[in-house]
Amino acid sequence: MLLRHTDYLHQRSGGMIGSLAHLIREAAVEAILDGTETITKASLARVRLDHAAEHQEHTRPALRGTLARAGSRR
């Protein structure tokens, strides 16, 4: 299920592994506690992240554009 949401996960976590780990862990705990045992995009959206991850979309370049430019320099 998480593979379908890779762009969303990257955007939400700001590409920061700690924020990504927190996001997935909290959604997993919620899925266990509510009995659904499924992580959904809606459950991911309910997780609050650290300030840097929550506000990164306005300060960091898009991943695809950054990777495309980096690849063109090689």
Low-confidence stretches are: none
Structural class: mainly alpha
Mean pLDDT: 81
Strand content: under 5%
Distance between the termini: 34 Å
Shape: globular
Q: Helix-strand pattern, N to C?
A: HHHHH
Number of separate structural domains: 1
Helix content: 55-70%
Radius of gyration: 14 Å
Protein name: Transposase
Provide the descriptors you would attach to this structure in a database record.
74 residues; mainly alpha; 5 helices; Transposase
Describe this structure in words.
- The chain is mainly alpha-helical and 74 residues long.
- The chain has one domain (2-72).
- It has five helices and no strands.
- It has helices at residues 6-13, 17-33, 41-45, 51-54, 63-72.
- α1 packs across α2.
- The longest helix has 17 residues, at 17-33.
- The protein is globular, with a radius of gyration of 14 Å.
Brief summary:
The protein is mainly α and about 70 residues long.
